[in-house]
Queue: 4 jobs
Job 1
Amino acid sequence: MRKIIFLFSISFVMLSCDKKEEKVLDSNQLSSEEKIDSTTIKTLFNSALTDGKSYEWLRDLTQNVGGRLSGSPEAQMAVEWGEKLMKEVDLDSVWLQPVMVPHWVRGEKEIATYTSNGVQKNVPICALGFSIATPESGVLAEVIEVKSLEEAEALGDKMEGKIVFFNRPFDDTLINTFSAYGGCVDQRVNGAAVCGKFGAKAVIVRSMTNSIDDYPHTGTMSYGDLPIEKYIPTAAISSRAAEILSTDLKENPSLKFYFKQNCETLPDAPSFNVVGEIRGSKTPENIFVVGGHLDSWDLGEGAHDDGTGVVHSLEVAYLFKKNNIKPKNTLRIVFFMNEENGTRGAKKYAELAILNKENHIGGLESDAGGHTPRGFSIDANSMNTALLQSWKKLLSPYGLHDLDKGGSGADISPLKGENVTLVGYRPDSQRYFDYHHTSRDTFDKVNKRELELGSASMASIIYLMDKYLYSDAPIKP
Amino acid sequence: MRKIIFLFSISFVMLSCDKKEEKVLDSNQLSSEEKIDSTTIKTLFNSALTDGKSYEWLRDLTQNVGGRLSGSPEAQMAVEWGEKLMKEVDLDSVWLQPVMVPHWVRGEKEIATYTSNGVQKNVPICALGFSIATPESGVLAEVIEVKSLEEAEALGDKMEGKIVFFNRPFDDTLINTFSAYGGCVDQRVNGAAVCGKFGAKAVIVRSMTNSIDDYPHTGTMSYGDLPIEKYIPTAAISSRAAEILSTDLKENPSLKFYFKQNCETLPDAPSFNVVGEIRGSKTPENIFVVGGHLDSWDLGEGAHDDGTGVVHSLEVAYLFKKNNIKPKNTLRIVFFMNEENGTRGAKKYAELAILNKENHIGGLESDAGGHTPRGFSIDANSMNTALLQSWKKLLSPYGLHDLDKGGSGADISPLKGENVTLVGYRPDSQRYFDYHHTSRDTFDKVNKRELELGSASMASIIYLMDKYLYSDAPIKP
C-alpha cells in the first residue's frame, strides 16, 4: 500500500512537470537593445501581476458607481471618480473636457408577452437606446419575421400595422465574435429606420450574442433620416425568446405580440471626458493617447464594456510611474464619455486636438473587454505597421500573437492620419457577447489576472511605441 | 436632433467594422495539399461550433453524475455514462478495461478553527487525498509556518507536537499558471512525508491557486516511505485563510489551530477505463489515442478537471464521423480512470497496450481545462516535432499559436517512446486554478464556444497527425 502510494506520487509529480511550460525568450536571439526591451516588458508584467491596481479600481467603479449611461447621475459620478483617481495616481496634470451628450432614459422596466396555443409567454425585452416609447397602453400587433434589412425592405407596405421581428442570428462559425457582431448589428441599428418608412407599428430584434439565453442586449439604434412622425418603438428580445417566438410563429402566424416601454430622449446634458497625462521627458509636444470609455449601458455595471478599458488605460500610466519609466513623448490617458450612444466625447477630444494644434503621434484603445490578451490590431501606415509587427518576438511570450492590420477603436479613430499609429487592444473574444450590453456585464465576470495581463500588454506596446515611433524626427500627422 | 442621431449612427457602424477582423488564410500562400487541409480544418471548426455535442454531454456528466472520485458510486455511474455515450456516437467498438483503483473517502465535512486576539476564526479547510483522519477529537496544536520542504526539514525536531503550515504562494509573475502550480505543489504532495518524520502532529497547506479566496483546494498527497505509524493528517486551507493565519501568527506565535477530518483509505475498488475506437481505413494496426480522465475530485462537479477533456476527446471522434473523415489509422478514444489519485487507469492502458502488442504511433490528451484554445505541447522526436510545428500556419487562424516542446499529460505519457508523438492540448490557463480541485469546478464555469473550439482544435491536429505521421512507413515505437 505504502509502496503504491509512493509510486503514484511520483507519477503525479511528473504530471505537474508535464504541465510546466513557462516560455522564456532565448536571449541569444535578441540584440542588446531588444534585451533591454525584453527586460522592461517583463518588469511591466511582473509589476501588473503582483502590484496591479486595476482590479480594485474596477471593483470600485462597477460596484459603487455601477451602470453609467451618458447624461445620468451615475455618469457624473464616474467623471468625479475618474478625476479623483487620476489625481491619486499622481499624473502630471488632470483635467476635464466639457462635452454635451445625448440623454436617453429607459424609464420603467419594459414588459412583453404573447400567447401561443393557449400558453402565455413572458418575453425578456429591453428598449434600444434612442428608441421612442410605446403608447402608454403598449403595442399589440401581429409579427412578421425577417432575417435582414433587405428582406424587410422587400416586404414594403405588407408590414403596415405589424411588428417586424429581425431574427438573423450570429454566425457561430466566425472565430472572432466581433465579426459575428459586425455581421448582425445592422438589424439593431437600422431596423426601425427601414420599417418605420413602411408604417410598421414597431420593431423587435434578436439580441446580439452567440449565446442562447434569457438576457436581452440593449445598444444604440438610429432612425436615420426618417421623419419624426414615422418613428416607431424598437426593442431587443433575448436570444432564447427569439428562437421560441420564431417557432411559435411557424405554428401560429397570426399570434399577437405585446410590449410596452417608457423610454425617452431628453435634451442633451453636460458631461466630460476625463484627461490626465505624464508629460514627455524629451518631446512633450508629441502625444500618445491611451483610453477607454467611461460611460456604459444602464442594464449592468459596465464591467467588460468598458470599465476594463478605463482601468487598463490608467494602469498603463501607473505602471510607468511605479517602474520609473519616463516616456519621451507625452502619455495622455483619456476616459472618453459617450462611446455607447454618440461618441461625442471622442469627437470633442479630436476637435480640441485640432483646435489646440496638438501633435498626436499615436493612440491605443481598450474597448473589447477584459479577457485574456491575444494581441493588438494596427491602424497605421505600412512602415509603422511593419515596425509594430517586428515586436512580435518580444510580445509573444505573453500570449500576444495577433498583430494584424485592423481598426483601433471608436474613441481614438477620429485622430486617424497618415502618420498617426492607432492600435486597438485585442483580448480573447469568446465570452464577450455573453455579457455585452446586458445585466450580466458585472464585476464578477472579470478575472483579476486576465485584467492585469491586459494592462501590462498595453503598457508594453506603449513603451515600445514611445521608444521607437518617430524617435528622432517627429512627423506631424 | 434627427441629424445628430444619424451622425452617430454612422460612427457606431464604423465601430462595429473596426472590431470586425476575422482572420482568413491567404490561400495563395498554401500548397494544394495545404488547401485541402485548410478546408478540412475549417469544416471541423464549423461543425463543432454549429453542431457540437460536447457542451450538452458535459452538462449531463457534471450535473447528473457530478464529482466522481475513484472508487465512488459516482465514478461507476460515470463509467456507465461513458460507455453508453460512446455507443451512441456509434464508434466501431466500445469496451471497458477493468482496473483496480485506490478508494479514499472524505467522510464528514472537515472543520477548522482558531482564536486570535479573542476572535474565533473558522477556516475553510479540506483533507488532502490519501490523508489519514485526525483523531476523533481533532488535532489542536501550535503552528509553525514554513515556505518550503527544505525549511521544514531544517526545523527537524522543533516541529514535534506542532502543526506545520506550508504557505509558499503561487508565483504570480509566471504567465502560465501551470508553471506556478508546478512550483508549489511539492508542499501539498510531500509536506506530510517530511514532517511526519520529525513527529509533527499534522500538516496544513495553503491552497494551490493564484486567487485569494475562500475555497480550499484538495488534491493528492503521499506519505512516501514514511512508516505507517508516522502518518499524520494533512489538509489544505483556503488562500485567504492562509494569508490571515500568517498575519495572526506574527502577532500570536503561540496560537493554537484546531482541525478535524474523517477521511479514510478503503481497500482498492474495481473500476474501468472506457475505450472506444474508429477503426483505421488503411493501417488499422496503428493507433492514435485521444483521451481525458473520467474521475474527478469530489468537491465540485469535475467540470474543467477533467469533464472537458472527456467530452473534447469524444467530440474528436464525433466530428470525424459527422464529416465523414475516415482516419487511415485507428482513432481510439479513452476515458481514463483514476488520474487524480493513482493514474492506475493510465498504467493499465499502457500495460495492456504492451500485452496486446498494440502499435501506438501517437496520442493527444486534454487535461488542462476547457478554456479558449492556445495550442499544443509536443513530446516527440525532433523530426516529428518539426513536422507538427510546420502546421502552425494552418492552426494559427484558430488562435493555436503555441506549438512548443513540452509534456503531454499524465494519462498518455506512459506510452512515451522514440517514435511515439504525444501531444497535450493547451487552452488558456489564467482561470484554471480558480476552480481546480474545489467546489467551484462546476459546469457554469465552462463556456460553450471555448469548449467547442477545444474539440475542433483537437480534431484538427489529429486529422493532420493521422494524415502525415508515418503515412507510408509505420515505425514501431
Job 2
Amino acid sequence: MKAVGIVVEYNPFHNGHLYHVQQAKEKSGADIVIAVMSGPFLQRGEPAIVSKWARTEMALKGGVNIVVELPYSFATQHASIFASGAVDILHSLGCDYICFGSESGNIQEFIQTFDYLQKNEALENEYIKQYVNEGYSYPKAKSFAIEQITSTISGQPLNLSTPNNILGYEYYKAVKKNHYPIELLTIARKQADYHDEYFSSETIASATSIRKEMLKEDSIQSIEPFIPGSTLHILQTYKDNYQVFHTWENYWSYLKFRLLQLTPRELASIYEVEEGLENRIIKYAKQADSFHHFMSLIKTKRYTWTRLQRICVHILTNTTKVEMSNLTKPAYIRLLGTSKMGRTYLKEKKKNILLPVISKLSSYQHHQLDLDIRASRIFAFGAPLSSQQELIDIDYKMPPIMIDTEK
Amino acid sequence: MKAVGIVVEYNPFHNGHLYHVQQAKEKSGADIVIAVMSGPFLQRGEPAIVSKWARTEMALKGGVNIVVELPYSFATQHASIFASGAVDILHSLGCDYICFGSESGNIQEFIQTFDYLQKNEALENEYIKQYVNEGYSYPKAKSFAIEQITSTISGQPLNLSTPNNILGYEYYKAVKKNHYPIELLTIARKQADYHDEYFSSETIASATSIRKEMLKEDSIQSIEPFIPGSTLHILQTYKDNYQVFHTWENYWSYLKFRLLQLTPRELASIYEVEEGLENRIIKYAKQADSFHHFMSLIKTKRYTWTRLQRICVHILTNTTKVEMSNLTKPAYIRLLGTSKMGRTYLKEKKKNILLPVISKLSSYQHHQLDLDIRASRIFAFGAPLSSQQELIDIDYKMPPIMIDTEK
C-alpha cells in the first residue's frame, strides 16, 4: 500500500480541505491519506476552536485514513520547525508522497527556488541579517532576502510572502535536506485566500472567515455551505457538550493571572521570551482588559503578531527554554484516529514504522509527551467551569477514534 | 497622646469587634486605637471576603483611629510569625498598649505561662519533637507539649488549644522577647466561639457564622443583628460594585490552572511546600472539582487544614522560598486609613515612628512590598471578569481612607 502525507490543522475542516484530501489521493495515486495535525494549540499561536478529537473525527469523515498528532514542541513553532517536525513524522510512517497546497500548484517553482537558494545560502543569511538590523521581523527579513535573491531566477519566482508557499517551501526543504525518499506534490489553493475574512465563493471559504462567522452568532448554520455536513454536526455537538468554541479571549484571564503572578525573571525562562520582552509583557498585562487589547499593546515592528501569540501560548502552557532545549526530532507518533484502510496500512507497515506509535498515553513516557499532555489539559481552561474537568480528563483517557466506513 | 494597638482581620467587622475596640480604649485609657490588619489573604490561608479597603472603612467607622496593613509575608503565616510581625509594627508606631481577646480575659495566665515556659524551653522543644515524630502536626504537638509542661503550674493553666489564646500568647511572647515597652491587656471574648458556625447570641456572632450566612443567600439582611450598620452598608456596596464576596472557591479554577501548568520541581520552590508534598498536590489537583474537594483530598494528619490553605495561598500568589528567605522584620508601615484623631497622632509622633510610613505605593520600593502588591492583584481574580480590572488597579492607586468624624 502507498500513502500520501498531508500536514493539517483543520480549524475547522472545510470544503477546501476536502478538496485537498481528494486531490492528494488522485494526484499521488496513493491508497491512503495520512494527516499529521496540530494538537490543541496551532502554528499561529492560537488555541484550536475545538479539541483535537473533534478535529480528528472531521478529518476521518472527510476521507483521511490516519490522523496523528504533531507534538506541541513542533506545532506551536515558526514555519521551519513546524514543517520539519511534520515531515519527520510522515517519513517515519512510511509516506511515499507529501502533498501540500500552494498558490500556483506548480512544484517546479519550489524545486527551482530550493536549488537556487541552496547555492546562495551565505548571501541569503547576509541579506536576512541586514533586514533584521533595519528592524524588520525575522520572517519579513527572510521573505525580503529570498525575493531579492530569486528575482534573478529565470521564469516564475516563488512568492514566499504567503503562508501556504512558506510552509510548502519548508516541507520541500525538510524532505530534501534529510534525503527522505518522498515525492513532493502541490495543488493550487481553490479560491479563498488564507487570510480572507469574508466569504467570496459559494462553497469554498477560508478557515479564518468560517471561524469568524461561527463566533458571531448563536447558530452555526451560516457556515453550512462551506463545510461538509459531518463537520457541521461535529461542531454542533462540541458546542452542545462543552458550551464553547475556544478562542484566545477565553484564556485571557488565566494568562493575565499568570502574568500578574510571575516576576520578570521567571517570565524570561519561558521559551521564546527574549531581549527584555518580559518587562514589556508584564507591564501591559496589568493594563489590558482583553487578549486583543494586550496583543495590540505589546506588538512592535520587530515581532510578528503570530510570534507574540506563540509566546503567549508558551506562557499559558508554562513551556520553558530548558524543556525545549533538547527537542530536535519527534520521539513518538501519537495516533488520534484511523479508518479501516488506515488500520490495514498500519498493520502492513508495522515493522517499518520508525518511531513508537502511541495509542494509550499511560503506556508510554517521554518528556516531549509531557508537554503534549500539559498543553491538552491547559486547553480545557478555555471552556466554562462546568466543562473543564471533562476536557481535562478526556485527552489522557481517549483511545484513537476508529471509523469503519471509507469515504 | 497614648495609643493602644490591636491585631485584626475584620472578616467582616462585627459587634464583637466593636466591643473589642471600645474595651481596648476603656481598659488602656489610651487616646486612640491603632489596628494592624491582614491584607487580602488571612492568617488561616483564606482570601478576605472583601478587599482591605472595604475592611478599613468598617474599622474606621467602628472607632479605630489608624489602620495599617500587616504585610503579606507576616499575614499568611502561622501564629508565631504573624504575631511577631504585627507586634513589631504596633511597636514601631509607638503603641503603649496592646489589647487582645482571650478566652478568660485574665492576663495573669499569660504572664505565668510565659515565665514558666521560658524556664522550660528545652523541655518544651523535646516534647514537641516527640509528638511530631508520632505524626502530629506542629501546632497540635506544640499545644500538647505546653499542656504537659504547664499542668504543673499552680492555679489556672492557660488553655493553648484555642486560636485566640494561641495568638494572644504569641503577642505576649513577641513583646517580652523584644523587650518592647508595651503593656499587654486582654479582654474576654463575648459569647460566640471562634469557630462557631451558628448564631448563638442576639448581637454577637463569630465571623465564621456571619460569613456562612452572607454566602448563603442573595440578601445579607440576616446578618444585620450581628454587625454595625456601617458594616452592612459597606458589604452591600462592595457586593453591588464587584458582584462578589471572595471565597476560596472563586479562585479554584486559577489555582487548578496553575497546578496543572507547573512541574513538581517548580512547585517545590513555593514557600512552605516541603517533604514531597508537591507530588501529592499535583496528583489531586487533576481530580478535584472544587477547592473544598481538593483540600479534603490532600489533607493528612501531618498537616493542619490551615497550613495547607496557606500553602495554597502561596501557590496562588507564586510566593517562593527564595522571596521569603530574608523577611525577618517588617520594613515599612502601609497606611490604609485614618480618622482625624489618628492623623493628629501621626503628626505628633512623626519623628518617633521607627519605620517608613507609606501612603502612596509609587513612592516606595521594597521587595517585601512587592509581595503585598502582587497579593492584592491576585486577590482581584476572585471577582467576576467584569470587576477584575478595577480591583487590580485599586490597590496601587488608592490613597489611605480618611474619615473626619470620630465615633
Job 3
Amino acid sequence: MSLVVHKYGGSSVANAERILHVAKRIVAARDTGQQVVAVVSAMGDTTDELISLAYEVARQPDPRELDLLLSTGEVVSCTLVAMALRSLGYASISLTGAQAGIRTDTIHGRAQIAGVDAHRLKRELDEGKLVIVAGFQGTNDDMDVTTLGRGGSDTTAVAVAATLGATRCEVYTDVAGIYTADPRIVPDARKLDEVSYEEMLELASYGAKMHPRSIELAAVYNVPVYVASSFVEEPGTLIHGEAKTMEHRIKVTGIAHERGVAKVTVRGVRDQPGVAASLFEPLAAQGISVDTIVQNTGVEQLSDISFTVESRDLDKATELVQKSLGSLQAHLVTEDSLAKVSIVGAGMQNAPGYAARMFRALSDAGVNIDMITTSEIRITCIVHESAVEHSVQSLHRAFQLAQETSGSSH
Amino acid sequence: MSLVVHKYGGSSVANAERILHVAKRIVAARDTGQQVVAVVSAMGDTTDELISLAYEVARQPDPRELDLLLSTGEVVSCTLVAMALRSLGYASISLTGAQAGIRTDTIHGRAQIAGVDAHRLKRELDEGKLVIVAGFQGTNDDMDVTTLGRGGSDTTAVAVAATLGATRCEVYTDVAGIYTADPRIVPDARKLDEVSYEEMLELASYGAKMHPRSIELAAVYNVPVYVASSFVEEPGTLIHGEAKTMEHRIKVTGIAHERGVAKVTVRGVRDQPGVAASLFEPLAAQGISVDTIVQNTGVEQLSDISFTVESRDLDKATELVQKSLGSLQAHLVTEDSLAKVSIVGAGMQNAPGYAARMFRALSDAGVNIDMITTSEIRITCIVHESAVEHSVQSLHRAFQLAQETSGSSH
C-alpha cells in the first residue's frame, strides 16, 4: 500500500468546522487505497496567543519553557483531527513529536531534526490507522521538548515522508500553489503546475510560503512536494527534481520579492587578509543572517563592502560592525527600507541576455537599482521598498509570465 | 535541605497576574531554605474549554485522544509558572507528567498512578532548581499520555510528596481550609486547624474539595497535607494522622453534605444467595458507583434492597437493574432529588447518643429521614434535596460547632 504524507497549516485547522473538513480530506485519500500520515500545525492564532501569555509572565521567557509551552498548540490540533477521524469511523491515532520519534538537537526555538525513529509510526500504520502527527516539535536526548522554528511543520512533514518512503508530501495551506509572482501584486500571475526544488528555493518568499529548509530537505531526500489549498478544490503545484523540468525550460519561471531589507556599507576598508572575517564573524555569532554581500576595490587599495540584513536586525548589526571597525580606519553608512526583486529560472546562467532584459525593464519603469547579485538560477536587484510593486509588475510583464506559452515550466 | 510540595488549583493560576502571585509564593517558601516542587492544574476553565472543543469535532471523543488533548492544559500552566520563577531570578524547570516520571495504568480518563520514577525530579532538585510539575497526568508503558480523572492534580502532588519524602504537601486553592460545614450554608461555620485523614475523607464533599483518593494516598504514605488559600494570607487546615487529633477529640468535627443523590429500591426480592451480586455486578461493570446500600428482610423471605447512586447515573442504573430483574419476581421504584447529610467525628462509634442527637435535631427541624447508614466516624441520613440547607444548619447548631470549645479538634 502506498503512503502519502499530508501537512495542514494553522488556517486549515483553525476551528472545529475546518478540522472536520481536514478529516474528510484525509479520509478521501485513504479511500483511494493509500496509507496517510498527516502533520498538523497549531490551530489559527494559537501559537501567537501562547507567546503573548509567556510575555505576560516573563520579560524574556526561557527558551526551554517556551518550547514546551508552544508545543501544546500542535498537540491540541492533532488530537482533535484524530478524534474527528474516529467519529467518521476510521481508526486513527495522534502522536506528539516525541511519540512520533522526531529527534532533534538541543537548540530551543529553532531545533534541527537529527533523525526520525519511525518505530511507533510504522506500528500504528501497520495496524491500519490514520496517523496524525503534531508538527513543529521534537524531543532532544533528555526527553525535553524542542520546537523547530520557522517552517517547522513543513519540515516535520518532509522528514516523516522521507523516513517512511512516502510517494509524496502534500502541503495544504490557504493558497492554491506556487505562482509566477505574488497575486496580490500581479493580478494575472499564473499558478505553476510544477517547479524544481532549486527554483522553489528562490521563489519561497511568496505564494505558498514554504520555508527554504523544508524544500532543501525535500531536495536532499528527493521527496516530491505538492502544494495546494485546503480551502478550494483546484490543482496545486508539484515541487520536484524531475529532469524534464530542467530541460523543457523556457527560462524565467517567476518573479520573487522580499521586503524589509537593510544595507550596511563600510567605506574605505584597507584591503588586507581577514578584514571580511572580522566584520562577519561577530554577526554570525549573534545569529544575524547576512544576505547579499558586495565588495568593490577602488583607489589606493581601499575597498567598500556592502551587505544586506533583515531590517529588524539592522540596529544590532550596525552596533556589532561599529565595534569591529575599532581597529580599521573606515566608516559606516546604513540604509533601510530596501527590498529584493528577483527573476528566477533554471539554467538562466547559461542563457545570455536575461540580466540585460531585467535591468532594461526596471530602467524603463523608472526603478533605480541599488545592488545586484546573481546565483545559478536567479538574478536579484536591491531596490527601494517603495518600488517593489511597480518592479514586480514590470518584470512579470517584460518576461510575459502571464501566458502559459512563455513562462511555463513544461 | 527539607522539601515541600505545593499544589495550585486552576483558580490559583487562572491568569498571568495569578501565576506571578503563585511564583512569589513558591519563592517565599524557597527563601525559608526549603526545596520546592509545585504541582499545578490547568488555568481556570481551560479543561472545560478543551472538552467543549473535543465535542465539537466528535460526538464521543476517543478517550486516548481526549487525555492527550486535556494534558496540554497543565503543560501550559506549568511552563508559565517556571518562566515566571526564572523572571524573578530563580532557577526553575517545568516537567510534564511523563518527564516527572508519573507512571500510570492504561485506563484513559481515570488512570491510577502506578509509581513515580523520581530520577529526573531528583536531578533537577539536586541542581538547585524549583521544579514545577504538570498535575493530573502521567504516561502508560506505551508512552501514551493518561489523565488521572477527578482529584488528579491533588493526587499527583501527594504521590510526588510521598516519593520524595517531603515534609508535607501544601494544597493551595480558593478556600481557606476545611470547615465544620459549608460556609455558604452555615455562615458561622468554623475553620478547623487540623483534622485526621479519616475525618477528611468524610468531610471531603465541601470546603476545600479534596478528592478522597488523594487523602487516601496521603494516609497510606503518612504525608501531612496542609490545605490553605492562595488568595488570602491566613492559616489553613492540616490533615494528618497524629494521635493527638484522635485523643483530644470532642466528638463531632463537622457536618458534611452531598446533593445529587438518587435511590433505587427493588421490592419483594426473594432472599436467596447471589441476588445482590446479580444486581450490583452489572452496575460495577458499567462504572456506576453505588453508595449507600440498605437491605431489609420482611415477610415470607422477601427483601427490599435500596441503594443510592449519583443522580446522573440513575437512568443507566435503572436500565441495568431492570435487566437483572428479568429472572427475579420483583419490582423497581426509583426516587431522585435526594441528598446526604452526615455528622463526622473520630471515635463517634464508641460514644453512644450521637445518632439519637442527630435524629432528634433533624426531627425538630421537621426533616424527614429516608435512609440511614453509619461508618466508624460518620452517621449519614438521606433526606430530600430541598431539606439540605435546613438540615446542615440545624445539625451545626445542635452540635455547637460554631464554638471553638465544642467542635474543636484539639
Job 4
Amino acid sequence: MIDKTAVQGENITIGSYVVIEKNVLIGNNVEIGNHVTIKEGTIISDNVVISDFSLLGKAPSSNNKMARKPIMDLDPLYIGENVKVGSHCCLYKGSTIHPGVLVADMASIREHVTVGANSIIGKNVMVENNTTIGDNVTIQTASYVTAHMLIEDEVFIGPCMSSSNDKYMASRTKELQGPILKKGAKIGNNASLLPGIVVGEKAIVGAGSVITKDVPASEVVLGNPGRKSKS
Amino acid sequence: MIDKTAVQGENITIGSYVVIEKNVLIGNNVEIGNHVTIKEGTIISDNVVISDFSLLGKAPSSNNKMARKPIMDLDPLYIGENVKVGSHCCLYKGSTIHPGVLVADMASIREHVTVGANSIIGKNVMVENNTTIGDNVTIQTASYVTAHMLIEDEVFIGPCMSSSNDKYMASRTKELQGPILKKGAKIGNNASLLPGIVVGEKAIVGAGSVITKDVPASEVVLGNPGRKSKS
Amino acid sequence: MIDKTAVQGENITIGSYVVIEKNVLIGNNVEIGNHVTIKEGTIISDNVVISDFSLLGKAPSSNNKMARKPIMDLDPLYIGENVKVGSHCCLYKGSTIHPGVLVADMASIREHVTVGANSIIGKNVMVENNTTIGDNVTIQTASYVTAHMLIEDEVFIGPCMSSSNDKYMASRTKELQGPILKKGAKIGNNASLLPGIVVGEKAIVGAGSVITKDVPASEVVLGNPGRKSKS
C-alpha cells in the first residue's frame, strides 16, 4: 500500500504490511520495518530507521469537552538524518526531529515539538505539543513532558519524571506554561515538576522530589516540597 | 480480512490491513485506520473514529499465579456515537464507552469499565477493570486508574496520577477497593492515591502528594503524607 | 509472510498480517494473533499465546549520544511453555521468559533479562536490560524496572513503581546498579527506589515513598525520604 506519489531514494528497505501515503518523501538508505503507517507528506531524511508498528505524521484529535482545540493546519512531520525511531511509536505532524535523535519504543511526540540533534527520547516517553527540546538531551523511560515545556541542551531527565503546565487545573482561562529546564540540569527519577518552575543551569533535582519553586543554578534540591540539600 | 457477518452502515472508511471479526456492528460515517483489529461482536456507533494500530474487544487473560481470575463471560465492547479512539489503544470486551468520549493514543481500558459522556481518557492512561468514570471527566496523560475505582462527573486528574486498591498488597483475601473521587475533585500530577480513600467534592490534591486519608469536600491537601494546605 | 525455515509444531493458530522471520521455532498448540512480528531465531515453546500487535525478538538500538552501547551479539529470545504475551508488547532478543509467565499488554522487556516461572509483568511495565526477575513475582501496571536490577522470588510490586540505577545521573564512568528487592518484599504504588538500595526480605515500602537507604528485612518504611513506620 505504497502510494505512487511517495518519492523514494536509493537503497531503501521496506517491511511487510506497510502503508505509505501520498507525497511522503523518503531519503537514501532508509529502513522501514513491518506494520508501519506513514501519513501524507511526511519527510524522512537519509539513513533513518523506523521500527515495526510505528505511526508517523498523525494529525491531532479532540472532543467537545476539550477547552483548547489543537491546531489542525500543520506542516508535515520532518525526520532528520540518522534518526532512529523504535517500535510502537506515534509521531505527529507539525514536529521536527533533528539529526541523530533516538526515539525509543512506545514513545509519543505530539505536534509543534522540536527535538534537538542527538537527543534521546526514551521508551514510553510522552512528549506533548508545543515543547522544545534542545541538543544532547536525555529523557529516560516513561517520563512525561507536558505541553509548553522548554528543555535546554544537555539536560538529563531520569525515568518517570512528571511535569505539568496548568496551575489552576483546567481553569480554561490562564495560559499554560510547563517547566523550564536550563542547560545541563539533571532531574532524578519520578520527580514532580510544577507548572512554570525554572530549574537553573546544572541544578540537580533529587529522585522523588516535588518541585514547587524555581531552583537556582547548580543547586541540589530534594524532598516534598523540594528544599536545598544540606549535604 | 473483514468477516461477512460484520454489519456495516453507510459511508464507512476502512484502512489497509484491517481485521474485523464475526458479528461486529459498525454504524454510519465510521472511520477506521490502518492495522486495526476489531474482535467478534464489538458494537461501534455512528460517527466513531478508530485510529491506526488499535485493538477493540480483547478478552481478558490470566496465568496460574493470578489470585483473582478475570470473568470471561462478557458482553461485547460498546462504543457510543462520536467517540474517538487514538492509535495503539487496547479496549476490552465488557466495557461501555459513552458518546463523545476521546480515548487518546496508547490508552488501555479493561473489562467492566464505564466511561461517561464526553470524558477524556488521556494518552497512555491505563484504566483497570470494574471502574466507573462519570461524564465530563478529564484524565490526563499516563495516569493510572486502578480496578474498582469510582470517578464521578467533572473530576479532573492531571498527568501521571497513581492509584491502588489493595491495602494488604496481594493478601488475596481482602476485597479490593480503589479510591473514590467525588464530583469536581481535582488531582495534581503524579499524586499517589491509596486504596479506598475518598476525595470529596471539589477537593484539590496537590501535585506529588500521597493521599492516605479521606479528603473533605473543597479542602486542599498537599505533601507526603497529604495534609491540609495552610495557605 | 511466514518464512519457509520457520519450524512449526502441531495445532498452531496464526492470525492475519503476521510476519515470522527465518529460523523461528514454534512449539505445539501456540496461538498467534493478528499483526504480529516475530524476528529471526525466536524460540516459542508449547502452549504459548501471543496477542495482536506484539513484536518478539527485537534487536537493541542506540545513537551517538548513548554512552553505554547495547551488546548486539545476543542469543535468540526464548519464551517458555504456557507463557502469555499481551497486545502491543515488545520483547527483545537475548532474554528468557520462563514457563507460565504472563506479560500483559503494552509491556516491554529489553535484552539480557530473565523472568522467572509464573511471574506477572503487568500492563505497560517497562523492564530494562540486564535485569533478573525471580519466580512468582508480581509487577503491576506501569511500573518501571531499571537496568541492572535484581528482583527475587515472590516480590510484589504495586503499580507505577519507579527505580533508577545511576547515582550520578549520566556521569558515564560509574557502574550502574539498580535496586535489589529480596524475597517476598512488597513495594507500594508510585514508590521511588534509588540506585543500589536493598529492600530486605518481606520488608514493606509504602505507597509514594522515596527509598534512599537500605530497608532491613521485615521493616515497614514510609515517606520522603522513607523512614521506619511508627505504627
